[in-house]
Design goal:
The complex is a heterodimer of chains A (402) and B (453).
Chain A (H helix, E strand, L loop, with lengths): L5 E6 L22 H13 L4 E4 L26 H8 L7 E7 L5 H14 L5 E5 L26 H7 L1 H19 L6 E4 L4 E3 L9 E2 L4 E2 L14 E5 L3 H10 L2 E4 L4 H17 L9 E10 L5 H13 L8 E5 L1 H12 L5 E6 L4 H16 L12 H4 L15
Parallel strand pairs in A: 1-2, 1-13, 2-3, 3-4, 4-9, 9-10, 10-11, 11-12, 11-13
Antiparallel strand pairs in A: 5-6, 7-8
Chain B lengths: L9 E5 L20 H13 L4 E4 L7 E2 L2 E2 L10 H8 L7 E7 L5 H14 L4 E6 L4 H4 L13 H17 L6 E4 L4 E3 L5 E5 L4 E5 L11 E4 L4 H10 L2 E4 L4 H14 L11 E6 L1 E3 L3 H15 L2 H12 L24 E2 L9 H15 L3 H9 L4 E3 L1 H13 L5 E4 L9 H13 L12 H5 L13
Parallel strand pairs in B: 1-2, 1-17, 2-5, 5-6, 6-11, 11-12, 12-13, 13-17, 14-16
Antiparallel strand pairs in B: 3-4, 3-15, 7-8, 9-10
Helix pairs in contact in B: 3-5, 9-11, 12-13
The chains are: A alpha/beta (402), B alpha/beta (453).
InterPro entries (chain A): Diverse_substr_monoxygenases, Luciferase-like_dom, Luciferase-like_sf, NTA_MOA
Keywords (chain A): Flavoprotein, FMN, Monooxygenase, Oxidoreductase
GO molecular function, one term (chain A): oxidoreductase activity, acting on paired donors, with incorporation or reduction of molecular oxygen
Chain lengths: 402, 453
């Protein structure tokens, strides 16, 4: 039997097309409400998807990756992704919740306790996507440091971006390491409640993490006991050699952005090359997903026409770092199974418009994949690591002999 | 006495953590970290029509004699994250997070509080606390960067900057008008702040929530802290839970409000209190004694004496008299505790000796007497009457209840005392508003935000 595909959905605003908020079924006035997001995530859970991701940035949205803009005709304003994911945790029971956070300006200690707390609130369904700052202007929101300014020429080439921001990627690696150590800083059985000695904790099972990197240090231990998953799922979006290295060394799962099956193979090769020079301290192999922006309709031609209509509203054809797919659920299933053959574990689909393209995934694509025995018919685990068939990791500080 | 209308008793609950007053040894004591514990306490508080649930914050585990302090409950979730999750299992209860102004930055705190306010439909509050110590700083990029003298000036400027960020989205800035194609007004979220502690500018990511500004809580007791509260806070957590001290504090703080163009109703004063109930006064007293014994184990008594004395007192008999040795003036055996900072060490030791001698108390007996005496002990009727008298006598506007066990420690209060307060006409039978500002009887924030034009 062929292994089943893993499917995730990336949620952002009213969908990834900048004019999606103007669709008749869009709910643009509700993007800051819990109800709106609850409806979306419950739909994804009805489709038995592995997890949803939430975009975020410590800045107002901009059409440009490297500087703010003054556009007023696209969605602006968003919620903190970790808190949003936490509010959705009690409203769902199986689906993974993976917020994006900035790691350039946010304190590693706060990141560790925030994601650990999400894992506690969701009983083991938390993931995390650390992201660096690519807009130098964002640094002025904090006034504590400066970061490199990308040029218009840089942003046309992923390798140039990665080279220019290498220092921030290196720092992101340190943040991920510090966060992982903090998650392990409480052993699972540190709380003993021993009335005979009056001790609530076994202090020997709490550990200073003493992380010291080139950019910061953290003493530890965490204030939050070890999360239910031990280590929540760490995911990295990567377009070039430097972030491939980060993913190989620090992540449980990487999102690639191939544009064809051949490109999938090429990127997997590049990832393997980066892995060779970035030792992986984690026992499990890296899971690999591909990202795709999707416009889906049952009727042939309709999705492409819909995208064109949105392009006209926005004033430019929508393009993305990821491949943009328009077509039917059957055609998308063909593509996913084809590319998967190059060595992918799954896909993260970015719906072009919400709720339309999410519903098309859950009620069109999912049944189509199931007919081909390529997707689950029931949730088989109650943690996110479990859904991805990743074991609960041992604690790096536990000796097991005490 | 003048015939003024009865004041309402504002009730809030604290999820207890870290203090030795949490009785983790009770067989009914549940998890300090499972979400179910938080959900249970929140639902109980909401069933009792409380104004809000309050979570404290931890940024560094306490250490005693060089090791992680192991006698008390420790380990808690990040407060804003768990409160966001609680917003999904409650509908009216206010959700108050403690967030430190020293080891955070305004942009991030302002967006997280605005997010909680959106997610909860206008129920967010922020307990603004300060710290300065290098010990906590070891967990953060900047380390112990702030002088103690600057902690309030940073907190004040931090709060003012956060308000500028919330106000950077003006009423009507969010349009979401598909017909015209205008989603947001030009310049929405633009801000610039130049001050002593913060020099920041740009665009703010998150329009403010239904309350405009979350409710601001302050807890400092110093003159500086009181002035901060009078100028900027909506609620003050007071430590004056005795009637005389409460009245003096109440008078002092409320008198400071006029300077800032505010009226006494604009700032609610609520002391943190504990309680033990019983069917009869004697049973309540007996239960209070049991609770106190569980709160102050022999080991805890010794630890607290070591903290006050500033020296290792291993081998000292907790059931014997206080140690005869002198305290070490600059001795630090306990880090991350703030309990004994307000009074000098010599002064504290002198006072402890005086009380112990006067009342013939052992070490453990004295520590129990001084640190584990519940504010209210009695039958539900006695406690309801005492609370009401406290509030009507202007010693407070209400209380933050700190139960001594989780998750069920508030159940009995809500089942037995709340109905009596309702009967007295001093506590709501049902919520009459939707936001925390409504519950507290506070004016809307200065710049209410219209979300759907």
């Amino acid at each position: 039997m062929t292994p089943r595909l893993h499917l995730a959905v990336a949620l952002d605003g009213t969908g990834w097309h900048p004019a999606a908020w103007r669709e008749p079924d869009a709910r643009p006035a509700e993007v800051l409400t819990a109800r709106y997001w609850a409806d979306l995530v419950r739909e994804a859970e009805r489709g038995l998807l592995d997890f949803v991701t939430f975009e975020d940035a410590l800045a107002l949205q901009s059409a440009a990756p490297h500087h703010p803009d003054d556009r007023t005709d696209q969605v602006r304003g968003r919620l903190d992704a970790v808190l949003l994911a936490a509010a959705l945790a009690p409203l769902t029971s199986r689906i993974g919740l993976v917020p994006t956070t900035n790691v350039t300006h946010t304190e590693p200690f706060h990141l560790a306790t925030g994601i650990a707390s999400l894992d506690h609130a969701s009983r083991g369904r938390a993931g995390w996507r650390p992201q660096i700052t690519s807009r130098a202007a964002d640094a002025a929101h904090f006034g504590r440091r400066t970061t490199p300014q990308l040029t218009d020429a840089d942003v046309r080439d992923s390798e140039l971006i990665a080279a220019r921001l290498r220092e921030l990627f290196d720092e992101a690696h340190e943040v991920a390491e510090a966060v992982r150590r903090l998650w392990d800083s409480w052993e699972d059985d540190a709380v003993i409640r021993d009335t005979a000695t009056g001790r609530y904790l076994d202090a020997a099972k709490l550990h200073h993490v003493d992380f010291t990197g080139a950019h910061f240090s953290v003493r530890g231990p965490s204030i939050t006991p070890r999360p239910p998953q031990g280590q929540p799922l760490v995911t990295v979006l990567a377009h070039a050699s430097t972030p491939y290295g980060l993913a190989a060394a620090a992540a449980d799962l990487v999102y690639l952005t191939p544009h064809s099956r051949a490109d999938t193979t090429a990127r997997l090769d590049a990832l393997a090359a980066a892995s060779a020079t970035h030792p992986r301290p984690l026992p499990q192999p890296l899971k690999v997903f591909a990202d795709l922006v999707v416009f889906l309709d049952e009727r042939p031609g309709r999705a492409a026409a819909r995208k064109r209509r949105l392009d006209d509203l926005d004033g430019a054809p929508y393009a993305s770092d990821a491949e943009v797919f328009t077509g039917t659920p059957g055609e998308l299933a063909d593509l996913l199974l084809d590319w998967r053959g190059a060595g992918l574990d799954g896909f993260r689909l970015r719906p072009g418009a919400l709720p339309h393209d999410l519903t098309a995934i859950t009620t069109g694509l999912v049944p189509e994949l199931r007919r081909r025995h390529a997707f689950r018919t029931a949730y088989e685990a109650d943690t996110l690591r479990g859904l991805l068939r990743l074991p609960r990791p041992a604690n790096r500080y536990a000796t097991g002999t005490r | 006495m003048s015939a003024r209308p009865l004041k309402q008793v504002h009730l809030a609950a604290q999820f207890p953590s870290v203090q030795h007053t949490v009785v983790w040894s009770d067989p009914a004591a549940g998890s300090q970290i499972d979400f179910d514990s938080f959900a249970h306490l929140a639902r109980t508080a909401e069933r009792g029509r409380f104004d809000f649930l309050f979570l404290s914050e931890g940024l560094r585990l306490r250490e005693h004699k060089g090791r992680v302090h192991d006698l008390d409950v420790a380990g808690r979730p990040e407060s804003l994250t768990v409160l966001s999750a609680l917003s999904a299992v409650t509908t009216h209860l206010g959700l108050a997070a403690t967030v430190n102004s020293t080891f955070n930055e305004p942009y991030e705190v302002a967006r997280r509080l605005a997010t909680l306010d959106h997610l909860s439909g206008g129920r967010a509050a922020w307990n603004v606390v300060t710290s300065h110590d290098a010990f906590t700083g070891e967990n953060f990029r900047r380390g112990g960067f702030l002088d103690e003298a600057d902690r309030y000036s940073r907190a004040v400027e931090f709060l003012h900057t956060a308000r500028e960020l919330w106000d950077s989205w003006r009423p009507g800035d969010l349009r979401a008008d598909a017909a015209s194609g205008e989603f947001a007004r030009a310049g929405a979220g633009r801000f610039a702040h130049r001050g002593r502690h913060f020099d920041v500018s740009g665009r703010f990511s998150t329009p403010p929530g239904p309350q405009g500004h979350p409710v601001i809580i302050q807890a400092g007791d110093s003159a500086e802290g009181r002035e901060f509260a009078a100028a900027d806070a909506d609620v003050i957590f007071s430590r004056h839970a005795d009637p005389a001290g409460g009245r003096a504090f109440y008078r002092d703080v409320k008198a400071r409000l006029a300077t800032y163009g505010r009226s006494p109703a604009d700032l609610k004063i609520i002391p943190s209190v504990s309680y033990v109930l019983g069917d009869t006064p004697a049973e309540a007293a007996e239960r209070a004694e049991q609770v106190a014994r569980a709160q102050v184990s022999p080991q805890t008594a010794l630890m607290l004496v070591e903290a006050v004395w500033g020296r290792d007192l291993s081998g000292h008999d907790p059931d014997g008299p206080l140690p005869e040795v002198d305290p070490v003036p600059e001795g630090v055996v306990t880090r991350g505790h703030t309990q004994y900072r307000s009074r000098g060490r010599e002064e504290t030791v002198r006072l402890w000796r005086e009380v112990a001698e006067e009342r013939g108390l052992s070490t453990r007996g004295l520590v129990t007497e001084l640190t584990a005496r519940p504010t209210f002990v009695g039958t539900p009727r006695q406690v309801a009457d005492a609370m009401n008298a406290f509030v009507q006598g202007d010693a407070a506007d209400g209380f933050v209840l700190s139960p001594h066990t989780v998750p069920g420690g508030l159940d009995e209060f809500v089942d037995r005392v709340v109905p009596l307060l309702q009967e007295l006409g001093v506590h709501r039978a049902d919520y009459t508003g939707t936001t925390l500002r409504d519950h507290l009887g506070l004016k809307p924030a200065r710049r209410p935000f219209e979300e759907t034009p």
